[in-house]
Write a structure and sequence with these properties.
It is built from 6 helices and 5 strands; from the N terminus they run E-H-E-H-E-H-E-H-E-H-H. With 142 residues, the chain is α/β, with parallel strands linked by helices. It binds D-ribose (RB5).
Length: 142
């Protein structure tokens, strides 16, 4: 799978480790930055990732910031993106099974790296349930 990934300064360590993990599992990873610990603005990295998901340049995306909220709010301005914030394994499962999130958003300052990688693994292996959940997703666009 081709996976795009981005973070702000709060997420660079988790991003670097997740890239190694994903490449080790045979995925192709496109890194949309940042790669600096200097304070930066999450939309500068969320928008390029979202555009890549919308265009099909990548199959899925992972976005990381301190709380996850800045990334999620920005990503969800894009029509073709369903970005879901997760903080434990059950939520990472449900954000795919029920919401068909094509971008997983992680709150680096509020979960351990071990939890982050566990959530990524769960989200990647879980299938969307469809049915009533598809009906609900179809009602999201305004
Ligand atoms: C950066 O300090 C922090 O505001 C950012 O990572 C994120 O939590 C915003 O939603």
């Amino acid at each position: 799978m081709k996976i795009g990934i981005c973070s702000d300064h709060a997420g660079i360590e988790y991003k670097a480790k997740l890239i190694s993990y994903l490449v080790g599992k045979g995925h192709e990873v496109v890194n949309f930055g940042t790669d600096s610990s200097d304070s930066c603005d999450y939309p500068d990295f969320a928008h390029p990732l979202a555009s890549a998901v919308e265009s099909g340049e990548v199959d899925k995306g992972i976005a990381i910031c301190g709380t996850g909220n800045g990334m999620a709010i920005t990503l969800n301005h894009h029509r073709g993106v369903r970005a879901g914030l997760a903080w434990n394994t059950a939520v990472a499962h449900l954000v795919k099974e029920h919401n068909n999130a094509n971008v997983l958003v992680l709150p680096a300052r509020f979960v351990s790296y071990r939890m982050a990688v566990t959530m990524v693994r769960e989200w990647l292996v879980t299938d969307f349930a469809g049915g009533r959940h598809q009906r609900r997703i179809d009602k999201i666009p305004v």
